[in-house]
Amino acid sequence: MKTTVSEKGQVTIPKPLRDRLGIRPGHVLDFQEERGRLVATKATPQDPLQSVYGILKLGRSTDDLIKALRGTADAT
């Protein structure tokens, strides 16, 4: 399958390849050069919560926090 590079450097990925590889509108592709070839891979989407996971420093264990939230222990 062949495609032509536009004036802006854009290419159209042939539909059979998009379908086979599950490339949909909005997917992000990473491009690399490997031994003189252009290689595109689907970028792994990052979970938005992953970037903030663990940023809270509460100064107590999770078990103590849950007990305090449930009212089953002293909320110190």
From TrEMBL:
Transmembrane segments: none annotated. Pfam families: MazE_antitoxin. NCBIfam families: lp_hng_hel_AbrB. InterPro entries: SpoVT-AbrB_dom (IPR007159), SpoVT-AbrB_sf (IPR037914). SMART domains: SpoVT_AbrB. One of its GO terms (molecular function) is DNA binding. Keywords: DNA-binding. This is AbrB/MazE/SpoVT family DNA-binding domain-containing protein. Gene3D superfamilies: 2.10.260.10. PROSITE patterns: SPOVT_ABRB (PS51740). It comes from the Bacteria. It comes from Tectimicrobiota bacterium. SUPFAM superfamilies: AbrB/MazE/MraZ-like. Residues 1-45 form the SpoVT-AbrB domain. The keyword Glycosyltransferase does not apply. The keyword DNA-binding applies.
